[in-house]
Amino acid sequence: MRVVLVLSPLAGLHERRGAGRYTKYLVEALRNLRDGNEYLVTSRPWAYHPDVVHYPFFDFYFLTMSSKNLATTVVTVHDTIPLIFPREYPAGFRGKIKFLVQRRLLSRAKAIITDSVSSQKDIVRYLGQTREKITVVPLAAPSQFRQASRMDQDRVRRKYDLPKKYLLYIGDINYNKNLVGLITSLSKIREATLVIVSQALYTKDTPEAEVIYQTIEKEDLSERVRVIRVAVEATKDVAAIYSAAWWYVQPSVYEGFGLPVLEAMVCGTPVICARAASLPEVAGEAALYFDPHNSTSLSQVIATVMRVTDRKRKAYVEAGYRQARQFSWRKTAILTRSVYQKVCVL
Questions:
Q1: Average pLDDT of adjacent 10-residue blocks, the chain of 346 residues
Q2: d(Cα 85, Cα 238) in Å, to the nearest integer?
Q3: Where are the domains of the chain?
Q4: Are the C-beta atoms of residues 241 and 300 closer than 8 Å to each other?
């Protein structure tokens, strides 16, 4: 079986964001199965006479799919965030027209993959697809992420001038990430310091970044909210920053999956997590939950973890290890391959 994953939709920003990482880790895991199948990545899929074409990213407002041979096409739809929050993710007139085309092509594709049961339900609701057509294939933390040694933790503390005890957020700054809510909640807990790792905050040139920096200034938190710059390829540093954190916070009002939750867990960092969308599927019983629409709820949880005993924190660390072990890229690859095989048979 020859499977081609289409590279073109990953051009630009998506290549370094979740969709690009998903494709990279998935292809590596598929090839590691050593099952005799070919797994290729290209922007010219039909030149290789594939048995299956897999679009690893679905854009709602840009034309990322071809109408050719849709009977052998698989599409990954990671989430439906732009449709759930249309005011925050405006399509514009042209985007709305392109969405109609994309949705029609998606309906003609043979199979859809998504990351969570939550996203599966939303694809049925917002895109009009049948539940039977959609296979849930969870993701996993990359193998490069693991608990860093004490030496590595001390190294990143010096390199990035990290505080001794800090909460951590890693990820994007889009509306659904709820960073403004996190920062506002932090203002009520004087002993809490937040470290943010996000390329999107390296400048203040976007409306999202501007709002976040304004919130930090408004709440007088410039001494307690730190944005640090970490090179994209510095995975070892990121793992050590996770490991050195007191707790990791995932404040999102919506996620299609929530990969940083698992990354934190495998790095030995306990997790504070919003009870929203897919996040309970990912974090299970290993996280402390809060209501992302209620800043008092998050403030109370932050206050709790800042005073938690080492023994109780360690219990959450161990629970996180157990939860993260339920996910692996090998499992992701095997489940994805089963979708390919089904498409070939049909």
A1: 82 58 94 97 90 95 86 95 95 95 95 98 97 98 96 98 97 96 94 95 93 96 95 90 98 97 98 98 98 95 96 98 98 99 87
A2: 30
A3: 2-140+328-345, 150-324
A4: no
